[in-house]
Specification:
353 residues, mainly beta, 5-stranded antiparallel β-sheet, 4-stranded antiparallel β-sheet, 27 strands, 41% strand
Length: 353
Amino acid sequence: MTKKTGLLTGLLIGLFCFLLSTIPAFAATESITPPEMQQLINQQAEQTVVVEQPPSLAMDHIADVTYNLARDVHKLANGNLLICRVGAWMPGITEVDQQGKVVWSYYGIQANSARGLANGNILVADSGAPGAPYVPRVVELNRDGKIVWEYTLPSLAQAPRYAERLTNGNTLVVLPFEVREVTPQKKVLWQYGLGKPAQPNQAGALLRPVRAHRLENGNTMIVDRGTYKNGKVLEVTPAKKVVWQLRAETKPAVSKENQKLPVLVEPLDALRMADGSTLVTDKKQDLLLTVDAQGQIRQAKSWAGLYKAAPVTDLWSAEPLTDGNVAIAATMVSGRSRTAEIIGDTMKVVWEK
């Protein structure tokens, strides 16, 4: 190698080494994050990820049987749950305490509803089906399992869906197409509904009533599930005049601001509150609606988050309680029944006016 060639080679090697030494510095310069961006990254890292929690439960009872289902649940004055279980095998009524222990039971009855009475007895709307004894009736049972009062219906086509004892001693009974008030002597004192299938818009018609409650003002609140998005909740006077109602809507309402508003789809139960508002539960939407005296929905709460941990195939009843809670009876995908009292304050508010 000549001296000239060696000098050139040395220069090239030196230039190559210099370039290699500058690459890391250049790369480091390019990877520097602007202060504003770094501040934003730090703020995002400090933010807590909010995970939506399911509603809290005051009581939760999951049955260990799959051969029948919980058709209805009612919270008694002592805090226990009264559960109606129907089916072809071992239908009956069970009272479950807050620890999930069965403290009272009565079997051999297809109860659509059961309500505790002031005298300690249980008033039952017995559909008579889908299994024996095939006799539709309303019965009052004492704690020894003895029938102390009975109102029998002529056929399964008139199987009672609900019954409650009134302060005057009469019994309010919900039948497939009507609501009637019956005296202890089994005389029909008052009636609303046509007593037979009718067109949805036919005056005085009830399509599928499921609940009826006598109000303090003497009127009767009736919950009609309807057939397809034509359910309603109505308040009827003794003269059979409708003075308040909330009707299901076929499509969601939209506000002037193009906001989707809650509507009623399929009511299950209703409760008139002391302030004049009404709590209504919706089967299809898993919602508790608060409705004002003008029949306008003011708030909608959802308990749907409860099903994330234990999915259900059907919701059979949802009873609003005076403290804003909701008692539900449902069948889970496993076939087991779940009855629970959902704490209202922990439900998700999905709309509020």
